[in-house]
Amino acid sequence: MTHAYRVDSEVGRLRTVLLHRPGAELRRLTPRNNDQLLFDGIPWVGRAQQEHDAFAQALRDHDVEVLYLTELLQDTLEYQPARDEAIAGVLDDSRLGDQLRKILEAFLGDLTPEALTQVLVAGLAHEELKTGRGLVYQLMDRHDFVIDPLPNLLFTRDSSVWVGDRVAVTSLAMPARERETALAQLIYRHHPRFENVAPVYEPALEHLEGGDVLLLAPGVLAIGTGERTTPAGVERLARQVFASGLVHTVLAVPIAQDRATMHLDTICTMVDVDKVVMYPAVAYSLTAYTVTSENGDLRVSRARPFLEAAAQAMSIDRLSVIDTGLDPVTAEREQWDDGNNTLAVGPRLAVAYERNVETNARLEAAGIEVIRIEGSELGSGRGGPRCMSCPVLRDPA
Ligand SMILES: NC(=[NH2+])NCCC[C@H](N)C(=O)O
Fold first, then answer.
1. What is the mean pLDDT of residues 355-361?
2. What's the CATH code, domain 71-147?
3. Which residues contact 216 (CB under 8 A, 6 or more apart)?
């Protein structure tokens, strides 16, 4: 069956979304590796799964079709070319050496699609490779991974993002996440669901993460540039979306190079066609460079206040900020816990972590219906409802 997927905004009625239910990859996190694997704590895995299931159910209750990344990946790995590509991807690792690479190739080649999916996502620990031997294998620490786990796969918004009827598979900046885009790429290239989808962007040299990309309005993107997306990444995506004719204006939005504000969506998400919820500390100081296409080249304006540049690009009078009016300490705490990272299920209807009590109360006071979900364990990876979802179909807003 052919599907026509398309996303033109952040707030059009959500129809289909791609999620990843966290699993064995989270069980790999220890106090020794959690920093490198970009988690701020050691999640209780069973509870994280319950929280995630409740998130998925809340979406289904609002008539959203939920696709799971591992299910799509497993279907994909039924095809020999996809399997070959997946295996070649993990073997292309400078740490392995020829002997271990050969052993690993044989091991992976024998796995069923289900087991291969599991290994691609959860990684492979030293002791799990029973056939392991040779210099590299013997000199590895028993805590080392032959294949690294991907605990951040949970944040499906970062590895791919839809622009109109095309998908951008991004280039993740952190080494711990690089392999995630290879999995996204496999799915979009080989899964029959996406047969007719032409990518508008594929992993490139420049760093670009989906959490930085906001579809402000049809034809208008805001792209954060900070810890994850570089100005060169913005430039690359801008060229591609301009060339495709899908977008006429890109706003490049510099954000602080900090873990707390790693992506634009940690400080700003949309809850209506003309309303954003924004971290108060930056709402009125954020700036943007307007990028447009001129005779095949990029034209860049001077920096202007973000809200002004956005409203102009979106052809609206005003992009209003919901006044979360919090005292600075509460605001900072709730920003850290992804209070600003909402997922709109439709205009004025958004999923948010329940723990951000004050931000949610202010959203409601402003007329936004809030679907509250628990996230005490999910949040230890520093991501909220928007980070954990890649919309693939929304109605026009
Ligand atoms: N779109 C987002 N804000 N994603 C959050 C990703 C969190 C993840 N632990 C990372 O450090 O990369």
1. 94
2. 1.10.3930
3. 9, 10, 222, 251, 270, 310, 313, 314, 319
